[in-house]
Write a structure and sequence with these properties.
Layout (H helix, E strand, L loop, with lengths): L1 H23 L10 H6 L11 H13 L19 H13 L9 H17 L5 E5 L2 H16 L3 H4 L5 E6 L4 H9 L7 E4 L9 H13 L3 E8 L11 H11 L2 E6 L21 E5 H4 L7 E5 L2 H8 L31 H11 L1 H24 L3 E2 L10 E2 L5 H11 L6 E4 L2 E4 L10 H14 L3
Parallel strand pairs: 2-3, 2-4, 4-5, 5-6
Antiparallel strand pairs: 1-7, 6-7, 8-9, 10-11
Helix pairs in contact: 1-3, 4-13, 5-13, 6-8, 6-12, 9-10, 14-16
Bound molecules: pyridoxal-5'-phosphate.
Pyridoxal-5'-phosphate binds next to helix 6.
């Protein structure tokens, strides 16, 4: 067992080193899944194992033939980077495999410290929260707290039929899903109109809230997006916070994608510190591997009110600060130590490295936007964050995205905005360089027949 273990570790080390080296220099194709691999991936349940080195090779080959977000010219959706120190953190954390459901000693303290660090990094006065599997779980967690705050006892008696909530039409689908799961019903999720920049219109929001209150409805939460998935627009947080304060409504900021930028563009996120809860994904624009979401709240007792409970199989937490069982503030029970990735990355690189790296990706978006306009492409509004909208007049842009993906030198996805298809490169990868941006532009020109 020992020699097998060491052989496996040595071989895994080589495979990881080869992958990391390759990510330093982008490759020119996205290889299709080979016939040999397809045959392996069709095998029935193995009764007997094979040599670990062969099995690791198969796994590495499968990953090499997968769409890997860590590659520097992967600019689709909202990618991540698989930051090396984060991958090592996962190896360590999964090897020790603490369970963050209950108070797990130092692992719990690491989670609490990483949460304090990320709160300070973006400028949100958190008193509690937890690491999650991502924005989807963070959002439903925050909205469960909001529902309980607006209607104390709703967790037991059910959501009242009068409940309503608000977000812009460009909010991520996970908000709709959370509202459905919490029994509010997506028919009662108001789509607040947006301005020409696709940011929520706070005057329209206020009018909608007033009309609903006059009709006897019960606002549960207003969800502002700190960087929409579609275009990267940041809703006006300060003006939305004013509406929330005026009517005593819970303010949630979904910053799963965009919130890291608050560390370098605080003026764009002014009002963030007035929110009741925020979501942020470190596995997006803070570069660490999935899954590493964080939900933070201004007042942790709101989470305890929504999730606290007693069972005969979970030990009682003692009264020391930080010693509460995480199952009393989270949706999940068994949880891995996701926080170690971010903790180790902050510890290794420091906050300034993160600010510099995020600034660089913002610069990439500005550079591409300017370059595309100069080369005759139609471009969307000046990017709030790191998503660029660009399209070619007179051609099918959905088809162009497909052709670019087939070409494989760069990988981007599309956005449909008011029925029109745009190319939508998104810069969240720490490995992407200014040269990669130029290559993207050249390849887009070439494939579009410019
Ligand atoms: C604004 C926003 N919220 C929530 C999510 C969902 O996050 P996750 O995929 O980590 O659950 C995303 C994903 O892209 C997002 O962009």
């Amino acid at each position: 067992m020992n020699s097998d273990r060491n052989r496996a570790l040595d071989h895994a080390r080589d495979l990881v080193a080869a992958a990391w080296t390759e990510f330093d220099t982008a490759r020119d194709i996205q290889p299709p899944v080979s016939a040999e691999l397809l045959a392996t991936l069709d095998l029935p349940l193995p009764e007997q194992g094979i040599d670990v080195v062969t099995a690791l090779d198969e796994a590495a080959e499968a990953l090499d033939q997968s769409l890997a977000q860590a590659r520097p010219r992967y600019l689709a959706y909202i990618g991540s980077s698989g930051l090396e120190i984060g991958a090592l953190a996962d190896l360590l954390a999964h090897s020790h495999d603490p369970n963050l459901a209950i108070h797990a000693g130092a692992a719990t303290l690491i989670e609490a410290q990483a949460l304090r660090w990320v709160a300070e990094f973006v400028g949100f006065p958190a008193t509690g929260g937890s690491f999650t599997s991502g924005g989807t779980v963070s959002n439903v967690t925050a909205l469960a707290a909001a529902r309980e705050r607006a209607v104390p006892g709703a967790r037991r008696s059910g959501t009242p039929v009068s409940a309503v909530a608000y977000c812009s039409a460009d909010a991520h689908y996970s908000i709709v899903r959370a509202i459905e799961l919490l029994g509010i019903g997506s028919d009662n999720l108001r789509a607040v109109p947006m301005d020409a920049h696709r940011r929520m219109d706070p005057v329209a929001l206020d009018a909608m809230v007033r009309a609903d209150l006059a009709a006897g409805l019960t606002p549960i939460a207003i969800v502002a997006t700190g960087g929409t998935t579609l275009t990267g627009a940041v809703d006006p947080l300060g003006a939305i916070a004013d509406v929330c304060a005026e009517h005593g409504i819970w303010m949630h900021v979904d910053g799963a994608y965009g919130l890291p930028a608050a560390a370098v563009l605080p003026e764009r996120f002014r009002g963030l510190d007035r929110a009741d809860s925020v979501s942020i994904d470190a596995h997006k624009w803070m570069f660490v591997p999935k899954a590493c979401g964080i939900v933070m709240v201004r007042d942790e007792s709101a989470l305890t009110a929504a999730f606290g409970h007693e069972t005969s199989y979970i030990p009682e937490a003692d009264d020391e600060p930080g010693s509460r069982n995480a199952v009393d503030v989270t949706l999940e029970y068994s949880r891995p130590l996701r926080a170690l990735k971010l903790w180790l990355a902050f510890r290794t690189y420091g906050a300034q490295w993160f600010r510099d790296s995020i600034s660089r990706t913002l610069d990439h978006a500005q550079a591409l936007h300017a370059m595309a306009a100069a080369r005759g492409w139609e471009v969307g509004p000046d990017p709030d964050l790191s998503i660029v909208l660009m399209r070619k007049q007179g051609i099918d842009n959905a088809e162009l995205v497909k052709r670019l993906q087939d070409d494989g030198r760069v990988y981007i996805s599309h956005a449909t905005v008011d029925g029109e298809t745009w190319l939508r490169p998104c810069f969240t990868n720490v490995r992407t360089t200014a040269e990669d941006v130029r290559v993207l532009m050249d390849v887009a020109d070439e494939v579009s027949g410019n």
